[in-house]
Amino acid sequence: MMPGLGGKYDIEIETTSKPVAEYQTDEYFELNLPVAPAVMVADEILVEGSNISQDKVEAAICRHLGISEPEPKKKGYFNMQQPETIKTKPSLWKPLLFIIMLGAVIFFIRYYNLDRYLEKEHLRQLIAGYGIWGPIIYLFIWTIAPPLFLPGLPLTLVGGVLFGFIPGVIYTIIGATSGATLAFLTARYLARDWVASKLAGTKAAALDEKVEQHGWKIVAFTRLIPVFPYNLLNYAFGLTGISLAVYVITTFIFMLPMTTAYIFFSANIIDLFRGKISREVIAGVILIVLVTLIPVIYKKITAKRGGKMDL
Fold first, then answer.
1. Domain assignment present for 84
2. Which one, of 160, 184, 185, lies nearest residue 172 by Cα?
3. Do 53 and 193 share a domain, yes or no?
4. Do 109 and 115 form a contact (C-beta atoms < 8 A)?
């Protein structure tokens, strides 16, 4: 970003980079310099302790040179002013709703004595009897589910119940990635204006600027952290500058941990339906909790090292 602006306006741009530890010493603070990372134009501190968009740096350079500032660029197809950050707050209602629904299902099965029909091997042999059509139908449903805004969690849990752990992970991650890609392509090539109108005014409208600043990391974080509804997110990325290949690869990789955790849990959930709390069920719950904490731990480590990424 900086070298390009230096050539455009024929000015000298100096970039200073040191180990993070040197920016946190008493000697550095005694110099009364801005908190790194920081951007300065002459004596004007544009930002300290966080990143900044190229548009704002360019506007400050123009002010310093006494020339008119360039017209602000529209970000992608979001015809609105972009919010600076998207604040992530832990959402408790989704886990609570999941627990309530799970409890209701267990109660229904136990009350009507349906647990005698729930045998893992019997169900999987039944699905295996359909041959290749079982996985094909499951993959087809998963592929059309995100574009149609159908919930993905029930499909994920069904994958573990019907196919078991390893096949369930394979089929689910392929299906979920295919569905996310179909929604992405729909937004990019078939329904750009319609999708943009639906996203205008939502938090997803800030993705374009965030992708410009952080690239694939935004895709990775939003797959790990449920900041936005999953189905809406797929469409929103289609209107950003992220490439299809980067989007697909990053989506596949960073949906894999949560997919694996849920499939491991659901592959053994029938034990819970039958009133048995097995070690596998407990391990599945622990695995889901651990995967959920990955981005939280990463953000804390990054903050300690002086980095920052607002979503």
1. no
2. 160
3. no
4. yes
3-state secondary structure of 112: coil
E-assigned strand segments in the chain = 38-41, 44-48
- Which of 65, 85, 106 terminates a domain? The answer is 65
70 in a structural domain? no
| Domain count within the chain | 2
Which pair of tokens denotes residue 189?
Answer: 């090539």
- What is the rounded average pLDDT for all residues in the chain? 75
**pLDDT digit string, tens, across residues 8-56:** 666 666 666 666 566 566 666 666 666 665 666 666 665 555 555 666 7
pTM attached to this predicted model:
0.62
Mean per-residue pLDDT, 118-125: 69
Q: Which domain holds residue 235?
A: 93-304
Residue 167 falls inside a structural domain: yes
Two structure tokens written together for 175? 């299906």
Angle between helices 207-214 and 230-238 (to 10 degrees): 70
Q: Which residues, including other chains, have CB under 8 Å from residue 188's CB and lie 6 or more apart? A: 238, 239, 244
45: three-class secondary structure by DSSP: strand
Assess if residue 80 is contained within a domain. Answer: no
- For residue 85, give both structure tokens: 């950050």
Would you say 2 and 13 are in contact if contact means Cβ atoms under 8 Å apart? Answer: yes
What Cα–Cα distance (Å) separates residue 223 from each residue in 180, 207, 226? 11, 13, 7
E strand or H helix at 285, and its extent? helix 279-304
For the chain, how big is the Rg over CA atoms in Å? 24
Q: The tokens of 109 are what?
A: 């099965």
pLDDT band at 138 (very low <50, low <70, confident <90, very high): very high
Q: What pLDDT score does 245 carry?
A: 94
